[in-house]
Write a structure and sequence with these properties.
Its main location: membrane. InterPro entries: BIM1-like, BIM1-like_dom. This is Copper acquisition factor BIM1-like domain-containing protein. Helices cover about 15% and strands about 30% of the residues. The protein has helices at about 1-15, 190-209; strands at about 20-25, 50-55, 55-65, 70-75, 85-90, 90, 100, 105-110, 125-135, 140-150, 160-165, 180. The two termini are about 25 Å apart. It is of the alpha+beta class. It has one domain (about 5-170, about 175-209): Immunoglobulins (Immunoglobulin-like, Sandwich). A hairpin with a 2-residue loop joins strand 5 (about 85-90) and strand 6. The protein contains two helices and twelve strands. It is globular, with a radius of gyration of 17 Å. It has a five-stranded antiparallel β-sheet, with no helix packed on it. Strands 2-10-9-4-7 form a five-stranded mixed β-sheet. One 2-acetamido-2-deoxy-beta-D-glucopyranose (NAG) binds next to loops.
Length: about 210
């Protein structure tokens, strides 16, 4: 009986920890149960890639779970189908600063792909980004297949703003209204060394998982 209660709680927790990649468009429709797998369960790149800015882009996620950390790794392989394809010489190709928040909600993070100075990242290149999301019960993944463009700007109907929300499944009535924080994009919030350390930790957790 103890065991089944624990199992039930664990299931609730894992449901709460899911996240969605809202922009750019992920490889395929969201399947919650597959999110702990490589690219959220989609092993192959799509043919209709999204055009994405070579520099000055952003990505947006929705987390129903408070207390999360997210980072982005990139592959320049045409059809990356393994975590190995996101590393070169055993080193994970990390792009951008990691992001974290104590809140649940919708979050938009700067994603300046060219700033990471990764080999093969240039105008016209096909790349895949993989969002690595750590919400407390193992890593979750979503991928987007992109073609980079130096003259593309994100359409203005794609809004980049943060909005916190009550954690998914919480029953707090009359809760605080969502707070809106439209911050400046492109600002480096953290030291690069710290970023590498943290994503290194996420990477290690991947290997252990
Ligand atoms: C990028 O990928 C598309 C299919 O997704 C392909 O048609 C095109 O040739 C690729 N471009 C390069 C530069 O590899
Ligand atoms: C690619 O095609 C699929 C299937 O038609 C569609 O659902 C998806 O929105 C398309 N993706 C992009 C980035 O246009
Ligand atoms: C992608 O990863 C697979 C599996 O590890 C490997 O066999 C393949 O050579 C990699 N592709 C490239 C282009 O590095
Ligand atoms: C952007 O660049 C590509 C190739 O580099 C070109 O084909 C396209 O016309 C350009 N688009 C705009 C809006 O300038
Ligand atoms: C949204 O919140 C994340 C996480 O705290 C932060 O990294 C990002 O810069 C914020 N974005 C905006 C547009 O304020």
């Amino acid at each position: 009986m103890f065991f089944s209660l624990f199992t039930a709680l664990a299931l609730i927790t894992s449901v709460n920890a899911h996240f969605r990649l809202l922009y750019p468009e992920p490889r395929g429709p969201f399947v919650a149960d597959n999110e702990p797998n490589f690219c959220g369960g989609y092993n192959n790149a799509v043919n209709n890639r999204s055009t994405f800015p070579l520099s000055g882009g952003f990505f947006t996620i929705k987390s129903g779970h408070p207390g999360w950390t997210a980072g982005v790794i990139i592959s320049t392989v045409q059809n990356p189908n393994s975590f190995d394809n996101f590393s070169v010489n055993g080193e994970q190709q990390i792009v951008g600063a990691y992001a974290k928040s104590d809140d649940a909600g919708t979050f938009c993070m700067p994603l300046d792909i060219s700033a990471a100075k990764i080999d093969g990242v240039k105008d016209g290149a096909n790349v895949t980004i993989q969002i690595v999301f750590a919400g407390g019960d193992g890593n979750l993944y979503q991928c987007a297949d992109l073609t980079l463009s130096s003259n593309f700007t994100v359409p203005s109907n794609v809004v980049c703003a943060n909005e916190t929300a009550a954690p998914h499944g919480s029953e707090t009535s009359g809760g605080a209204s969502p707070s809106q924080t439209a911050g400046a994009l492109g600002a480096a919030h953290v030291f690069a060394g710290y970023v590498a350390l943290l994503l290194g930790f996420i990477g290690a957790a991947t290997l252990l998982a």
